[in-house]
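note to self: dont lose this again. the chain is below, predicted strucutre after it. 366 aa total, dont forget to put it in the shared folder this time
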Amino acid sequence: MSFEGGSISFRLFYLPRDLPNNAVERFTKFVVPPLQHLKEAPVNGWVTGRHLLDRQINKDTAYFGGYLRMTLMRAERKIPTSLFRAECRMEELARQQAMGVAALPAKIRGEIKKQITERLLPTMPPTLKGITLVYDENSRLMFVSALSEKQVEAFNVSFGQTMQMQPILLTPSSMAAWRRKVDVRDWDPASFSPEVESEPGEETVGLDFLTWLLFASEARGGIFQVPDIGEVGVMVEGPLMFVMEGAGAHEAVLRKGEPVFSVEAKTALMSGKKLRRAKVSFARGNETWQCTLDAQDFAFRSLRLPDTEALDPVGRFQERMRHLDTFNGVLFGMYERFLDERADAGRWASTLKEVHKWLADRGARK
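---
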């Protein structure tokens, strides 16, 4: 899955200021070391977005179609577990036979493991992994193929060291602060169920948004006017993951059939659970965007973009980035609509009454 073709999985970052004029030179300073120097310890560094072995970083290779495209590469040598165990066991049996014992002391077994590691590790081919970034200079948005917290942390450290600037990971709370200058920690908790009272707890603004999006797509017709985008259709589909902090079953995952309209979905919502992960589709005319949205962190998995018409690689990439920009426009537009409702106490009270009625009247399809 790359930004050049197929589906895309990514997190969004925002830069507080423009990149420095010598950004390419800074990437070059922290280029990954040559792999022939790779020993036991893993190495990290930058390569271009062309491939994981491209250490030739310059303005021609760092930019593609007008976008900065770089990859944080990690290289390490690993001995396959099965091979390591077999080699160690073979040596242990030989030592046991030579010493005439049924078992070896722990110290000798440790020495064998060290010797096997020193012998095999230099012969192992390096394992390469990459986290790719694509940066839009106009919006200062950065698309980064880091999903796990470990990947995000590694990217933050390396990018901050390289640019002397810390990128801002766009989570539900940081996006609310950026787009609407609101601190979601000031909000009282909200229950979407008419049968469960809201209680203070972990911040759930992302879950509130996705649950609200399910409600809005059904109860409000699913067609919305999005600023700078136009009329957009919104649909929320399964698989669905509902979560709730506290005692009892706090997670429910619904798959197969039509989980959105299932009795189990209504039961989860009525019990106070909120929607954490679902497949979300946006449609404008004949164009469709579809991804799995993890609302807790705003992680976008397997985003499918509309088809491109360009035949050359640069043209295709530029079209895909324009489609990605439209996806962001819809996402930001819908999230800001939700934030505006959520921040207005009177409107939000009215919205919750509407949500409670929708949920109480919601039937299941058979």
